[in-house]
Amino acid sequence: MADARLEDVLDAPQRNAALGWAVVTLLAALAITHGLDGSYRWFVFTGFAVVIVLVPAVAFRDPLVMPPWELLVLVLVPVVDAAILGESPLTTVAVYVAVAAIALVVAVEIHRFTAVRMNHTFAVVLVVLTTLAVAGAWNVAQWLSDVTLGTAYVLDGRSQDAANRAMMIDFAYAAVAGLLAGVVFDRYFRGHTERVPERSPTPLESAPDGESVAVPSLLRDRLDVPDRTVRRLARVLQVALAVLLLYGLVGRDLTTVANAAIALAITFLPAILERDYGLPIEPGLAFWLTAAVFLHAIGSAGLYGAVGSWDNLTHTVSASIVAAAGYAVVRAIDLHTDEVYFPPTMLFGFILVFVLAFGVVWELVEFAVDESAQWLGVQAVVAQHGIDDTIVDLLFDLVGAVVAAIWGSFYLTDLSQRIADRFDG
């Protein structure tokens, strides 16, 4: 069974434990070395890796409970490289191999030692998402250090665009490393067939049953706005998008035309889901989606340049949509199958990982579109404006994720149940 294969990852043979502890000891020594040398970035990275690896052994008070030593070697490679050679061409690539290895360890430990249950496919997806999310968080942390403490990790004297380009290359490395980690997870751990005894510091929670509990509508019951009014407001925004599209066509503005057309098409998604898949979307959610794409479309038409905080607003709202979609789908999978279960506290964390990973992917898409437009000599449909803009976008993505994760635990329950019913059907 997939469940048994996942539990095989953290086996407890003495040989694995001995090799694992040897690697951990070396990592700890290198962390201290980096700290004494003033290389605080590597000190934090290595220390974080050591903490993640040792969590199971500390929780069980059993030194034999260690992740596969091969994964720890992957974490060790860039740390040794940085200690011996300093920053080298290998460092940038190797560090994301280490990030992917940490993501593998995290996925295994979450499955083995918490109430979370994951099948094989879901675990592979989690590894890829975690790798991307850690890459995003790592660059955000370095930028914050540069801004608040005066370090020079990413703001090192280069222009905003040059620093942003370097970060996009880092994100590309992270994406490749995450995909490779997923392949490694799929190939390597399928070979483990021995069942490891069940270990858990606390009794596992039981997954809730799949019964739907009626929940109130935010706009109708909380804000006292009738559904008819909400639908009319959504229609007004759709008409405004159509007008914006015509304006772009008349003015031959490719950016406005592309963004307005895509936004207008997205607003019909709730109706398509209801008509073709039997998933009626609550009017408040449909309005939420329509408002998000409308704000982006009018931003692309000129407000992004005229109003400095408009980009922050649209990223927050758009991220909340992404988070809501992620919440609804994962919760539906949870209700649909006993192989996957996320308790509310862990689901909140998953949503943050999901949105941050999606934010990294979106920034890569923007970068690719921007670079392609420059190469072809045409106007870019979406564009980036330096590393500060990109990092702030990611920070506001997290704000939207937090809002949706808190809201989703209450207001997206019915949608999740309907999606689960479609899976069952």
Automatic annotation (TrEMBL):
Key words of the record: Membrane, Transmembrane, Transmembrane helix
Transmembrane regions listed in the UniProt entry: 18-36, 42-60, 92-110, 122-141, 171-189, 232-250, 256-273, 285-307, 313-333, 345-365, 394-413
Source organism superkingdom: Archaea
Pfam families reported in the protein's UniProt record: DUF2238 (PF09997)
UniProt KW Nucleotide-binding keyword: no
Protein name: Uncharacterized protein
Naturally occurring in which organism (per UniProt): Natronococcus pandeyae
